[in-house]
Amino acid sequence: MIAAPVRIALLSYRSKPHSGGQGIYVRHLSRELVRLGHQVQVFSGPPLPDLDDGVGLTVLPSLDLYREPDPFRTPRFNEFRTPIDVLEWASMCTGAFPEPLTFSLRAWRHLRHRLGDFDIVHDNQCLGYGLLPLGRSGTPLVATIHHPITVDRDLELAAAPDWKRRLSLRRWYAFTRMQARVARNLPWLTTVSHAARDEIVEAFRVPAERLRVIGVGVDVDTFSPAEGSLADGEPAGTTTPRSARILAVASADVPLKGLAELIEAVAKLRTGRDVELVVVGSARPQGAAARAITRLGLDDVVRFVSGISDQELANLFRSATVAAVPSRYEGFSLPAVEAMACGVPLVVTTAGALPEVTGADGLASLHVPPGDVEALAAALGRLLDDEPLRRRLGENGRRRAVEHFTWRRTAIRTADWYAEAIAAKGR
């Protein structure tokens, strides 16, 4: 580890606090780095992160064009303060997603006068062109790529109903070309799993040896089994719970997350069991999940909750009979680790890093092919009907989370990575 405290500028172009891996990563990594004795200043555009005591925050204001409840809004004239604001507005008007680019430009505009205040700059998934002059400065620049957004793009294109929608999606995801170019120009990169590393190598054409794999973590004190739960040693029975709750967490209602397939599976389970589905996240009004709920008549069975704290999320996990991660791809999956930490038995797909995170041996979760509704329903039904299996998976999952996925472990490995980049820049 680094002997002396390191002054870290942690950049995050959007840091949604209650769902979505980037905001969670920023909060917990910054807290643990501070606990290790380092100094962390987070630079973020809206939505802003929740940060713990001791972590600084510098807000880089944007037009916040995608804020709720008025996304794609029209800004007032007096909101335009710089040419970057004009670029942001004009890009949105042409169907692009400008935030990674405009945030990086704002970060360069601000940090170029403050680089002496920091020993290292750490970019969190922005990969905008503004990073390139930062990388040429005397301060080392490193970046985390959680997974290449080209995966999201390709899945949405495959689900698009017509050429107009595909054209719109290609314009929206045009920023991924910029991210690939920037990634190829950064010598210090990390990602969260070997599966994500392989995807980045293929999508962005980044040499594999340039990517360090540092898994992310969970707060194992907040996310812990309920007292007397299966993972806490309750005697096992063999009966299905009278009313079973399936829990899923989805940062967005997009094809990547597989919510529509999970809802289809729940409909199949409802024919013989009393189950409900709670989704932490929100459904798009005309999205695939909302259409599936209406078509299958599940309005009183599926419930969405959002904007909850870590403690409330942990309580929800503890209230669940089983948890599901039906994604078509995951670069890591914080919800899977949070469920394991709470001792909740899991059904996950074999997509992306999910077997890597939950264990390819199947000791902590049941695995199903992505997009296979029949297999998903069968696996969930198996867990609902087999209490000893639920207990065994819950106990193994808790053990795996504590041994491999804590934020302190992530922070220690990240600090070591900083040390290598600082030493290399010095040479």
Description:
The protein is built from 16 helices and 13 strands. The protein has helices at 21-35, 83-93, 99-111, 131-135, 150-159, 163-172, 175-184, 194-204, 259-269, 288-296, 310-319, 334-341, 354-358, 373-385, 387-404, 407-426, and strands spanning 7-12, 39-44, 56-59, 120-124, 141-144, 189-191, 211-213, 244-249, 275-280, 302-305, 322-325, 346-349, 365-368. The strands form two sheets. It has a seven-stranded parallel sheet with strand order 3-2-1-4-5-6-7. A six-stranded parallel sheet has the order 10-9-8-11-12-13, sandwiched between helices. Helix 9 packs parallel to helix 10 (288-296) and helix 12 (334-341) crosses helix 15. It is globular, with a radius of gyration of 22 Å.
What is the element layout, followed by pairings?
Elements: E1 7-12, H1 21-35, E2 39-44, E3 56-59, H2 83-93, H3 99-111, E4 120-124, H4 131-135, E5 141-144, H5 150-159, H6 163-172, H7 175-184, E6 189-191, H8 194-204, E7 211-213, E8 244-249, H9 259-269, E9 275-280, H10 288-296, E10 302-305, H11 310-319, E11 322-325, H12 334-341, E12 346-349, H13 354-358, E13 365-368, H14 373-385, H15 387-404, H16 407-426
Parallel strand pairs: 1-2, 1-4, 2-3, 4-5, 5-6, 6-7, 8-9, 8-11, 9-10, 11-12, 12-13
Helix pairs in contact: 1-16, 2-3, 9-10, 9-14, 12-15
Question: How much strand?
Answer: 5-15%
Helix content: 40-55%
CATH superfamily of the largest domain, called what?
Glycogen Phosphorylase B
Which secondary-structure class do the elements indicate? alpha/beta
DSSP helix count?
16
Q: What's the alpha carbon Rg, rounded to whole Å?
A: 22 Å
Mean pLDDT: 92
End-to-end Cα distance: 19 Å
